[in-house]
TrEMBL record:
Domain of life: Eukaryota
Protein name: DEP domain-containing protein
Compositional bias (Polar residues): 88-105
PROSITE patterns: DEP
GO biological process, one term: intracellular signal transduction
Domain DEP: 215-291, 378-434
Basic and acidic residues composition-biased segments: 129-151
Compositionally biased residues, Low complexity: 69-78, 111-121
Residue ranges with Acidic residues bias: 152-166
Region described as Disordered: 1-25, 60-167
Pfam families assigned to the protein according to its UniProt record, in alphabetical order: DEP
Pro residues compositional bias, start-end: 1-11
């Protein structure tokens, strides 16, 4: 009838709404079952693919480690004499000829004090006091290590609690309780006893030798002119500061300038006027490399060594093929006793932190830092050796490997694979531990 409101829609009965709810629930269950079926099929495919690749790929290296000890434990001499658990040959064999090599003449002419002085005598006196304190602390650390080892031997002789019937588990538990420095690091400290080290700006003299060799290979050295004066084989102070910043040797301009001042005072570089004993961050101040350090041609020796190793740059795309075709699974025990005194003096704690930043900067600039197995800042041991040698931080292969091993002992890098415990010049992944994952 006209004027009446429209009739309301018919209300569904309670039984009909209940049936609709049951129908919707069944359809949701069917969708879940279909999703589970597809997931099961995908997992079956993954399992079949892995089983087909077990003959050519060692999947044990990708297993997640339960716990990584911060520092390898040191086996005492008493435990080593049991014979049931032979120690790794790395510590003893790598430094078997340490005493003979340590008696060699120091051709670098190291001295405990700097022979040249800065124009600001007050600042230099304060700096040299800090460096002398750093040297005393360094030698005291080696002395304390000897005293600690002698005390351990005396305690072992006075009260020997070991029994011939010790089980394997008891021996392992005894070893794990010794929280001492890494064996290879201990061997390096023993080698340092016969090496005289001087410190400048908190870093050893050998660090500045490596820095100067790097600058010699990286800076543009050519004839410069200022007004009517021409200077052959010169570079600018501004270029030197910039190169130290770009490569990661220095964090800011002030630090780079201080490092440059040390290079001048040590006589590695000099102002063209030979009257200024500081490095100026400008394009109008020219400097030359002196004859104090020898600069061999890096291209010839490095190229011949690279050709003999047949090593090519790789990335994440061809990593698997390169490993399977070129690298063996055997771990190499390097003879670090043949490494130079210079590199042993270089790998102090402070210098290693700087070198880790250098690797980070260079790998980042060359796009060599990879994201691998959930870790950021990953790189290959072979790539690190190439970078260390190309930058003239180390001049030989064994010296470059020793730097990598020292970085690992200091906890600045660590291997990704659980089967690797040392630094290897191979296609083995390591990661920089000081890089945040965020």
């Amino acid at each position: 009838m006209a004027g009446l409101p429209p009739a309301p829609p018919p209300v569904l009965g309670r039984s009909e709404s209940f049936q609709n709810m049951i129908r919707n629930r069944r359809s949701s269950q069917d969708e879940i079952r279909a999703l589970l079926a597809r997931t099961t099929q995908a997992l079956d495919k993954i399992v079949s693919i892995r089983e087909s690749m077990e003959d050519i790929v060692d999947f044990k290296q990708f297993e997640k480690r339960s716990q990584r000890p911060s520092r390898p434990s040191r086996v005492s001499s008493s435990i080593a004499e049991l014979g049931e658990h032979p120690a790794r040959s790395t510590t003893t064999s790598s430094y078997g000829s340490t005493e003979a090599s340590s008696l060699s003449e120091d051709t670098l002419g190291r001295s405990t004090t700097s022979t040249t002085h800065s124009s600001s005598s007050i600042e230099d006196d304060g700096e040299h006091d800090v460096d002398r304190d750093r040297e005393d602390e360094f030698h005291e650390r080696s002395t304390d290590l000897d005293e600690q080892r002698e005390q351990e031997l005396e305690d072992a002789e006075e009260g020997d609690t070991f029994d011939e019937d010790l089980t394997s588990s008891s021996i392992v538990s005894s070893i794990s309780t010794v929280d001492d420095i890494a064996p290879l690091k201990e061997a390096r400290l023993d080698r340092l006893k016969s090496i005289n080290i001087s410190f400048h700006e908190g870093l050893p003299r050998e660090f500045f030798q490596s820095l100067c060799r790097f600058l010699n290979s990286a800076l543009e050295v050519k004839t410069r002119h200022s007004r009517f004066n021409f200077y052959k084989e010169a570079f600018t102070g501004g270029d030197a500061v910039r190169e130290m910043l770009v490569s990661g040797f220095a964090e800011d301009h002030q630090t780079a300038t201080r490092y440059g001042n040390v290079l001048v005072r040590l006589g590695f570089i000099e102002h063209v006027s030979r009257t200024d004993d500081q490095l100026h961050n400008s394009k109008d101040n020219f400097y030359r490399f002196t004859k104090v350090l020898e600069y061999d041609d890096p291209s010839e020796s490095f190229a011949s060594d690279t050709a003999s190793r047949r090593r090519a740059s790789i990335n994440a795309n061809n990593y698997r093929e390169s490993v399977l075709s070129n690298e063996s699974t055997d771990v190499v025990d390097y003879d670090f006793a043949t490494a130079t005194d210079e590199v042993h003096a270089l790998v102090t704690e402070e210098a290693l932190h700087v070198l880790a930043k250098v690797l980070h900067k260079v790998f980042e600039r060359k796009n060599k830092l990879l994201f691998y197995k959930g870790f950021v800042g990953c790189f290959l041991g072979a790539e690190a050796v190439n970078v260390i040698r190309e930058m003239r931080i180390a001049t030989t292969l064994i010296d470059a490997v020793l730097i990598g091993q020292a970085l690992l002992d200091e906890g600045l890098i660590e291997p990704i694979a659980t089967t690797v415990s040392t630094f290897q010049d191979k296609y083995v992944f390591y990661r920089l531990t000081k890089i945040s994952s965020s």
